[in-house]
Design a protein that fits this description.
Strand content: 15-25%
Radius of gyration: 17 Å
Number of helices: 3
Largest sheet: 2 strands, antiparallel
Strand order of the largest sheet: 1-2
């Protein structure tokens, strides 16, 4: 019988372990876009801000947009501003338009 990817011999992998296995650490050779609802109930927005500070300190070109009132799922709904921002940001990168990011100073 095949195991679910988040199972190991002896039972399920605790959620924290699974999350640590999925942390993106880079290096990133291309600009990074991070958009998140500021009232995300799954991933605290403060954690994302801390992550962005670490990326910026490592020299990553990162653009971050927080969506006030946005939750973990509401920012993915049809008509969400995140969708428009991500499409515009990606189109600009594909067109060769440079970005300097918006790292906190």
């Amino acid at each position: 019988m095949k195991r679910c990817p988040n199972e190991r011999a002896g039972g399920r992998v605790p959620g924290g372990v699974r999350l640590r296995e999925n942390v993106t650490t880079g290096p990133f050779d291309a600009p990074v876009f991070i958009g998140q609802g500021e009232t995300d109930e799954v991933i605290p927005y403060a954690s994302t801000r801390d992550y962005v500070v670490r990326l910026c300190a490592a020299g990553v070109n990162v653009e971050t947009i927080g969506y006030p009132g946005g939750t973990h799922m509401s920012v993915l709904e049809v008509g969400s501003q995140l969708s428009d921002d991500l499409v515009a940001w990606t189109a600009a990168r594909l067109a060769g338009t440079a970005t300097t990011g918006n790292c906190p100073s």
